[in-house]
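We were asked to recover a plausible sequence for a given structure. The inputs and outputs are reproduced exactly as logged, with field labels preserved.

PROBLEM: sequence recovery
POSITIONS: 544
GIVEN STRUCTURE:
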């Protein structure tokens, strides 16, 4: 059975459109529209290019698809609108099955885990008129226990403060998370949201406006927020101690509310495994807090946890509903397009850049990293989700003290407080990082982990101000080329990890094609680009 999961584009505020293709219960392809249209979050876009990419990867035509899976059960016209646009763009619309937004998130988390039974939580802004759901996942599927109403949205709590601090909603929440450790306690956000027995209570007056926002660029907070916190930060205004304290407060409020939900769910179920999805599940600091709860032994966060992963969850849920045997577990998310050496070579010749084909590109890249150079790394199939995991990455030496500032200033062009993540050899992760769960470090960069005290001085560029790093454990089995690069770097430096950040600059999606990679390389302060078997290098600049 072939199932095509879709998400996005039906309204102008709908973000992160994507497509996922399941063949006989296995994930064959998953693609995000923003990578193709080059507009971050791809607001209001239909996943047309993502559909084409998935079909091309599988080598099939849309007429071979048995079912379309899509969220939107609360919208009476949803199926007709999907059918119309599929017929318009592809000339054919397979049968369409609608599922609930929150249940799709739950399915994406549980079915991609390898747990026999688990507590499952979806938590986001809202979808299908709900802001979250909790369930028990088992061999029998998902047993829905409760849902959270739209006016109790923890995602909206975080989004309203994101907007108040002058950042973009549904995009910059991770900036607030990164800023939070720089703040101090003292600001009380309990009027907005607070833990209560059995969960939490939130007050939607703080994010409700007399004229509701019709775009993410408008304010997403109400007059009640101004009464509580005073003047908001204007876009582009310098960050003050007060702003940092507000970020600290919303992070702690969010964590305490989510912790209360998990504690109550554990009391009800007695389970010690936890699955998370929904946009809130991308908060890697909160994920660490949950993992440190004494009763949590196993935790899985679906790596494309935000709405970009809805297409995956919808496809998995429909497959299960139709009695398909769904392949459990998620070994990797290298599920996007791949560009062979001929395609890369054609792009290099088209642009006229000087390039080499080194005899040992891994050794050369490791040499440059050891020297303190900043390298673009473009290999294999692109990743599904918001994290670059070694195929569309910018890499650097994590042991260079000023490397974080250098990359933020001359490569990423972003705020100086923003941290970078470590990619570590999976077999050495426990030596460098203190993972609180039995599963060990995630291969998907979904949880912050404390950097062990003896390694903090050796990893200054990937140790955040709170002493944690958002770890990616790299295995030889799932990404042998990236693993070999880190091994080569370890032999030169004694550090079995590299700094890894997404191959993009501020405000742009992660690069998808060879041409995207070349454009970003040329327009930024990268020193070298390894693209397939080829290498492009800029002349060394004095003082850099």
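RECOVERED SEQUENCE:
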């Amino acid at each position: 059975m072939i199932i095509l999961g879709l998400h996005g584009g039906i309204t102008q505020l709908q973000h992160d459109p994507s497509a996922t293709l399941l063949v006989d219960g296995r994930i064959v392809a998953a693609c995000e529209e923003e990578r193709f249209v080059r507009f971050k979050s791809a607001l209001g876009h239909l996943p047309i290019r993502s559909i084409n990419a998935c079909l091309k990867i599988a080598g099939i035509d849309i007429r071979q698809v048995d079912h379309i899976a899509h969220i939107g059960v609360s919208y009476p016209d949803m199926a007709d609108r999907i059918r119309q646009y599929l017929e318009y763009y592809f000339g054919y619309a397979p049968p369409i099955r609608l599922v609930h937004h929150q249940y799709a998130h739950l399915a994406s988390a549980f079915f991609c885990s390898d747990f026999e039974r688990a507590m499952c939580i979806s938590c986001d802004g809202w979808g299908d008129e709900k802001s979250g759901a909790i369930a028990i996942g088992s061999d029998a599927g998902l047993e829905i226990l409760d849902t959270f109403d739209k006016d109790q949205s923890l995602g909206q709590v975080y989004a309203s403060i994101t907007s108040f601090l002058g950042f973009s909603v549904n995009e910059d929440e991770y900036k607030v998370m990164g800023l939070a450790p720089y703040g101090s306690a003292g600001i009380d956000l309990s009027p907005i949201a607070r833990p209560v027995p059995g969960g939490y209570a939130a007050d939607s007056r703080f994010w409700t406006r007399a004229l509701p926002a019709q775009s993410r660029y408008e304010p997403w907070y109400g007059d009640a927020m101004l009464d509580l916190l005073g003047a908001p930060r204007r876009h582009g205004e310098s960050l003050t101690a007060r702003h940092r304290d507000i970020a600290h407060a919303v992070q702690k409020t969010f964590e305490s509310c989510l912790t209360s939900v998990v504690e109550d769910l554990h009391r009800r179920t007695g389970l010690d495994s936890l699955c998370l999805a929904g946009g809130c599940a991308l908060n890697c600091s909160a994920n660490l807090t949950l993992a440190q709860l004494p009763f949590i032994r196993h935790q899985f966060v679906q790596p494309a946890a935000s709405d970009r992963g809805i297409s995956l969850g919808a496809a998995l849920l429909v497959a299960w509903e139709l009695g398909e045997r769904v392949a459990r577990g998620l070994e990797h998310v290298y599920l996007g397009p791949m560009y062979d050496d001929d395609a890369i070579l054609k792009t290099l010749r088209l642009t006229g850049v000087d390039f080499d084909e080194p005899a040992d590109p891994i050794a050369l890249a490791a040499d440059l990293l050891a020297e303190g150079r900043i390298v673009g790394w473009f290999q294999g199939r692109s990743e599904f989700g918001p994290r670059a995991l070694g195929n569309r990455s910018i890499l650097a030496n994590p042991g260079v003290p000023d490397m974080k500032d250098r990359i933020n200033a001359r490569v990423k062009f972003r705020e100086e407080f923003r941290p970078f993540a470590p990619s570590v050899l999976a077999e050495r992760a426990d030596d460098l990082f203190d993972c609180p769960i039995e599963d060990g470090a995630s291969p998907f960069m979904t949880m912050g982990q404390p950097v062990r005290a003896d390694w903090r001085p050796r990893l200054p560029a990937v140790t955040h101000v709170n002493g944690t790093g958002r770890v990616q454990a790299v295995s030889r089995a799932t990404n042998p080329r990236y693993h070999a690069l880190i091994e080569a770097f370890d032999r030169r430096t004694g550090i079995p990890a590299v700094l890894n950040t997404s191959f993009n600059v501020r405000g742009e999606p992660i690069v998808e094609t060879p041409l995207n990679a070349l454009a970003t390389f040329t327009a930024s302060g990268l020193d070298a680009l390894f693209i397939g078997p080829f290498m492009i290098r800029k002349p060394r600049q004095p003082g850099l």
